[in-house]
Amino acid sequence: MNDSQATTPGSLSGLRVLDLSRVLAGPWATQTLGDLGADVIKVERPTRCDDTRKWGPPFIEGGNTWDAAYYFCANRNKRAIAVDFGHPDGAALLRELVASADILVENYKVGTLARYGLDYTTLKAINPKLIYCSVTGFGQSGPYAGRGGYDFLIQGMSGLMSITGRCDDEPGAGPLKVGLPVSDLFCGLYATISILAALNHRQASGEGQHIDCALLDTQLSLMANQAMNYLVSDRVPQRLGNAHPNVVPYRDFACSDDYILVACGSDSQFQALCRMLGRDDLAQDPRLLRNDGRSQHRRELEVQLAKSISTWCAADLLLAMEQAGVPGGPINNLQQALADPHVQARGLLKTLLRLDGTPVKVLGYPAQLSATPPSYRLAPPVFAQDTAAILRQELGLADARLTELVDSGAIAMAEPAVARAVSAG
């Protein structure tokens, strides 16, 4: 099935985004805008493509082109051009494109784009309505502003790794990063939220603005309940493995054949769990009637629950928990998660076709909008596949001028086979 055709205009149809970002945080934001209908133009430099195109294996092969699977997670619904902003003619081309753009997203080190006349102050003079979003590791100000930021470093610096991993008194204890680049991903989402807020402000005022999104700020804000626990109690949170710092029982337990998750978010759910397990002694223990008491006696309670749960087959226990109204679930690998009948019914897995017909499966936009659903119009583009088409259509450049720009190194165009496919399309 090809899911690449849009049937309904998206919420952001009619908006144009210049995407000067690379790797993940910025591209995640611009892909989200693209899923919601915006026209996103991905800008790469002729001599240096987005790093993630090479972050493999695995690679996706199509025709004479190769791109890493990593690149595909954040670059659908975009057109791709290759322009060298370090070349005067290349920078001039981007400034011309800015004149008709609504949003620009970039993630270069602080001050880099100012050297080429592509900073917010310069571009605001060209297009006062421009919303310019800068995504960096540490923001536009402060003593670390000039540093490069990587998700792994941010997870450590923000305190996230200090609360992730096994308890200090358990084998294998020590700080652990989350298995996904969550600081990048959440920063991309906050960038998107901020852009949408700025669009609403522009609707009322007619003015654009500059948005300063930092990975460290984002990840610190996402410390959420753990940060509040510290701010209220002055006690530094510690690693608890899979346990919850505030709610008990809320962790993994071993059945006779597999691990399962128990997540009792209320006193009544705890009571139901105890009755289901035949542990009226725990349900009636006055120390355990409320969550604060269960937190104080966490170790003792969890040992008792573990004994009772260990005699069950995982599938039987999860069925019994569902019938009793006790939240619980399996610990799936990715293959199992995608094969889950509920996930299949939600339709999150999409198939897109590249220019050469190569099918690519992607995970789609997770929210379902009744009037303006997300769309999957374009597979992640081949490097520079749209340079010629966009510069012809948007700036009116003739073929002779395109050839001059290629010869000077200001732009790059896709290989002839791809360029012919674009032209024919």
Brief overview:
The protein is built from 18 helices and 14 strands.
The shape, in one word, is elongated
- Tell me about the largest β-sheet: 7 strands, mixed
Strand content: 15-25%
Structural class given helices, strands, pairing?
alpha/beta
Q: CATH architecture of the largest domain, please?
A: 3-Layer(aba) Sandwich
Description:
The protein is α/β, with parallel strands linked by helices. The chain has two domains: 16-222 and 344-412, Crotonobetainyl-coa:carnitine coa-transferase, domain 1 (Rossmann fold, 3-Layer(aba) Sandwich); 259-330, formyl-coa transferase, domain 3 (2-Layer Sandwich). It is 39% helix and 16% strand. It has a seven-stranded mixed sheet with strand order 8-7-6-1-2-5-14, sandwiched between helices. Strands 9-10-11 form a three-stranded antiparallel sheet, with helices on one face. A hairpin with a 4-residue loop joins strand 9 and strand 10 (259-263). 36% of the residues are buried. Mean pLDDT is 93; it is low at 417-425. This is CoA transferase. Keywords: Transferase. Pfam families: CoA_transf_3.
